[in-house]
Fold this sequence. Notes:
Elements: E1 2-7, H1 17-20, H2 25-41, E2 44-49, H3 56-67, E3 70-72, E4 77-80, E5 89-92, H4 95-107, E6 113-116, H5 136-149, E7 153-157, H6 159-169, E8 173-176, H7 182-191, E9 194-196, H8 200-207, H9 217-237, E10 240-241, H10 257-268, H11 272-286
Parallel strand pairs: 1-2, 2-3, 4-5, 6-7, 7-8, 8-9, 9-10
Helix pairs in contact: 2-3, 6-7, 7-9, 8-9
Amino acid sequence: MIIDSHIHIAHNALFKKSQWSNSPIELQRQWLTEILREYKKKDVCALRDGGDGIFASCLAREIAKEEGIIYRTPIFAICKKGHYGSFLGRAIDGLEDFKREFHILKENKLDHLKIILTGIVNFDKFGDVGDVAFLHDELEYMVKSAKEYGVPIMVHANGKRGVSQAIKAGVNTIEHGFLISDKEIYEMAKKEIVWVPTLSPLGNILKRNDSNFKDQIDTIRKVYTVQIENIVKAYEIGVKIALGSDAGAYAVPQVNGIFDEINHFENIGFSKNAVLKMCLENGSQALNI
């Protein structure tokens, strides 16, 4: 069995978000069933979604159960109003907003809380990952709420400051984690936080030498190289690394994305057995299996 610890099933080649809300439930089920059956054909039988704003992953979880696939979803992600991430869920402005949205998440039985703490890697400016969106007290409150409810916390974070803040707050997994330092790597190892470093979004752009990014390719390669170096360090000191493809992101297709991720790890120099062990054992922890 293969586990993809980070996907977004709502982003795919079968439908656009604009089509989803105008389509009958039967068609929505048909789309998701087709995707999930393709995963199953390739022996990818456990998936962890990073959320969407249209409840597609919520329906996918229901269908996955019928198809014999383990599926975890946060329902939708939580981000800060005016910051990156609203297309993956709900933007909040303060803890009263969070309380309201968390109530909705609980009604829909979230499997984990997804928090978007920083922006994404800026391909035009090396080192830029946007601001840290939430104050420490805000993040701490959201993490505490999830723990009291009994679900793990999945945090999108890049850069030293954002990842450090997530670690201090006691999250369960760090998603992406680009451009971090040795300090954050050691802290993840110490606190047994699972790291899902998602190489495929950048790695696939580099592999195809994508002409859409011809003016940014050097920066992308530089960021990717730092990520590889950090993965090697993290593995050597015992950080629990799980494989997540970020399927649904640009250049990362559903189903095949996790095999791209496996290839990127093998290209670093990890053996297939080591990669599959990370994928299965640490992926199981990420999915709370």
